[in-house]
Amino acid sequence: MPPPMKRPALATWILVGLIAGLACGLAACYLLPADFNAAALRWVLRPVGELFLRAITLMVVPIVLVSLTYGAASVGDPRKLGRVGLKVMGIFIGTTVLAMVIALALAEGVVRPGQSIQIPTDARYAAREAPFVMDVVVNLVPRNPLKAMVDAEMLQLIVLALLVGVALAQVGPKARPVLDFLGSLNDALMRAIEIILYLAPPGVFALIAKVMIEQGVEVLLPLLAYVLTLAGALALQAAVVYPLLLALVGRVSPLRFYRNHFPAMTVAFSTSSSNATLPVNLEVTETRNGVSKSVAGFVLPLGATINMDGTAIMQGVATAFIAQVYGIGLSWGGLATVVLTATLASIGTAGVPGVGLVTLSMVLASVNLPVEGIALVIGVDRILDMLRTVVNITGDAVAAVVVAKSEGEWDRAVFERGKG
Ligand code: ASP
To answer: CB of 388 closer than 6 A to ligand 1?
Structure first.
């Protein structure tokens, strides 16, 4: 009798969903009648995609609170927490600045995608005002924990969870029952995410097919030079910067890392949201990439909120592009300002679809470029957002692995084995 066929792992099914979503979406967009596509969107693609999106988004607030509180409490020693915090911030800022340098070198130095483009006369974009920096600082602390949860204010939740976690660690043995409770709740939430992930193959399929039918890819053509420059810079970050960091600093295999991390990348690609991908990124980084609960619980929620290398890259390339279209030269000082403000703007970008374009106005304003320039790139942003979100969450997972390794909080056996 032939041996029973091995069932493909969930990660493989998610990949199938991704490829089938792209292929069917494009085929439907160009080959099938509009009526059929409208019905497919209404009856299948929107509801299935929305169901998956809701199911993972549902987990974001509980998982951030529980995993971060538990993570901070089980690191225990505030000095260790501070050290981990410093390392993480160093990696976050270092990789974002590198990302910006790559983006500007490519867009301003090598390709210059905006040089041969005319300014359309109907370019309009109403910018939102940048928040006052002291308000941002004050806003870190929630007035009311429930409101922070209801509004899913990530930075406020992080502050709350860190405070409670550190306090629990300091209470000592008396806090044991709470810690045990949080530990079991954390495990249960992780299990819930694993269950939700069974929805991922059809969910990813539906979300991607929907974008392809609604947008088509011909929107990319007029701005192909911009699209390719941006995709190239994102690819350099993912295929050169992160692997070097993993191999040289972390001393772990980048290939193995990507193999394990892949399901989180597909979810980021299909949802365009770091926040929505956070539960899956946590699950994958712990159970496939071998990072301890405490380090993953600390690094990933923080990263999903403030570490956005892909967004910084988009802002760098878009700024150079807009300056070239308007025929405005950027001095070295201007370029340095762009690096600084895009790093800050990416920190201030919430992990939801499309926000990177809103905070781009801060970067443009900092070097006196017309904010209407955003109207030039808005049409292609929906699809590019998918790519940059993948880089955003990958940077977080890389930081988690490197920090975990350096703190002895990394499990080689889990990493080598990966999982289905
Ligand atoms: N969609 C991105 C994210 O969630 C943010 C952005 O618009 O750049 O990571």
So the answer is: yes
pLDDT in tens, 109-157: 887 777 776 666 565 566 666 667 788 789 889 999 999 999 888 888 9
CATH number of the domain at 10-417, out of 1.10.220.30, 1.20.1630.10, 1.10.150.120, 1.10.3860.10?
Answer: 1.10.3860.10
Ligand 1 and 113: CB distance under 6 A: no
Distance in angstroms (rounded) separating the CA atoms of residues 73 and 161: 9
For ligand 1, say whether the CB of 273 is within 6 Å of any of its atoms: yes
- 394 burial type by CB count under 10 A (0-12 exposed, 13-18 middle, 19+ buried): buried
Give the global pTM: 0.88
CB 307 within 8 A of CB 351: no
Condensed to tens digits (0 to 9), the pLDDT of residues 360-395 reads 888 888 888 888 888 888 888 888 999 999 999 999
Q: How far apart are CA 280 and CA 330, in angstroms?
A: 40
